[in-house]
Give the backbone structure.
Amino acid sequence: MATASPKPNTEQSDLSALKGQIPLVGLTGGIGSGKTAVSDLLGKLGAGIVDTDLIAHQITAPEGAAIPFIREQFGPEFIDAAGALNRTKMRSLVFGNPQARLSLEAITHPFIRAETIRQPKQLKQEGSPYLVFVVPLLIESGNWQGLLDYLVVVDCPVETQIERVMHRSNLARVDVENILKAQASREERLAAANTVIENQGSLTDLKDAVQSLHQKILQFPKENRSSS
């Protein structure tokens, strides 16, 4: 069944208005690489974090902005008993049906974009020294490279990714492998990175690497710092 496209309220300007006002850092990595762990550590150090995956979960949570459109487009069976998106059922559909994936993206992307514009402007006003955009499919989208000042890739061996996601999300190995196939390869991400954070050691090792990254970003040229 067709449904009207969502039209969330948003400012007409985009993130390019922040270019040169504050360092804009992209953070990406394959599923299970540890992007959230790195972004959480950067946030504790004072960075402004804009997590597109978290935004996607918020808009598809119970009473989330995208839920009425998803229910109308795909049917009530794709909404769970709590009123949130049934992620397992939707994942099974979109991985085997490119048109369904495009239909879902047509609903969710406008809401995600609106928040991805609103949040960094607010974080800048609150005094964040730099902004980190956590984008799982940053390389794949092709929309971020001209905007970002710096790209950080969180990396670990593919087998480690698979084991982590199987344990974390209770997915079968074949399901995780299918997700990996839909993402950029490890080699593609590493080739695009300005800095690679290796996440296959201890938490102490990871904290040390993130602290070094934080200090490096703080030393970016003055013209890329936040201005009042």
Observations:
- The chain has two domains: 20-47+129-219+224-228, 53-127.
